[in-house]
Amino acid sequence: MTHSSPQTLAFTVDHEHSGIRLVGCLTLLASVVLFTLLLNTFVFPDALLLSGLIAIVLGVLVTNGVDRLLKGRWHSGRVLTLSPEQLALTKHDTPEAVLNPQLQVNALFWHFIVKRGSRVKKGWHVTAVALEQDDTYLTFYTFCAPDKFEELPMSKSFTLLAKPKKEDSDLRQAGIMRRLLRAEGHRNQDGAEMTHEDFVRAILYLQDHFTAWMPKP
Predict the structure, then answer these.
(1) What's the DSSP call for residue 10?
(2) pTM of this prediction?
(3) CA atoms within 13 A on the CB side of 208
């Protein structure tokens, strides 16, 4: 969800936050147990395995429905706000990271490919931006299908994340990778997850308003 004024963009982030994921797990477990008991008692009294298999399918359907319902109504409370005066990530109006965009900001761009599919499909890109100022990191990211990644604004600026190798003689590249790995640590712990559309809008806003420190496309 995006709220905007002529000079400000505000994004609600973390649409699938930890509370929703926890409710999803509990809903699935409770649904499977309940449906198994009902089916085994009233429909297939001599087929516990069949009852369990059908219960799993029904539990997944119920969980998906609850998940869709909660995503539209239960927000994380975290908001990413971009304006000419301030870049901020807040939670219930309490600042988590605040930067002054009128001063120098270090903008870092990276991505990596999901190797094992779980919540995110295998082969998709985790695509992230970190804005760093005086050791304060404001980090936001999204998940991209391979074809969508190529269409991202500044897609060529996103460095593929990899651990520096000891035998790597390119000290400059190794230094860049260490900075990105440090930023990835902040993303993994405190980063703001955005929809693909909001992520694109955020990058375009930064490009338009902060040419002094944003990388050139």
Answers:
(1) E
(2) 0.78
(3) 13
Three-state DSSP class for residue 132: strand
Q: How far apart are CA 136 and CA 186, in angstroms?
A: 10
- Any residues with CB less than 8 A from the CB of 29 and at least 6 apart, and which? 59
End-to-end CA distance of the chain: 26
Provide φ and ψ at 14, rounded to 5°.
60, 55
For residues 84 and 8, what is the distance between their CA atoms, to the nearest angstrom? Answer: 7
CA 211 from centroid of its chain's CA atoms: 25
C-alpha separations of 93 from 1, 132, 212 in Å: 16, 21, 29
Per-residue tens of pLDDT for the chain, all 217 residues: 566 666 899 999 997 756 666 776 888 899 989 999 999 998 888 889 999 999 999 988 988 887 777 676 667 789 999 999 999 999 998 999 999 999 999 999 999 999 876 668 889 999 999 999 999 999 999 999 998 998 999 989 999 998 766 655 567 777 889 999 999 999 999 999 999 999 999 999 999 999 999 988 7
Q: Which two tokens stand for residue 210?
A: 């902060």
In whole angstroms, give the CA distance from residue 215 to residue 217.
6
Structural contact between residues 32 and 212, judged by C-beta atoms closer than 8 angstroms:
no
Give the number of other Cβ atoms within 10 Å of residue 117's Cβ: 10
The alpha carbon of 90 is separated from its chain's Cα centroid by a whole number of angstroms, namely 16
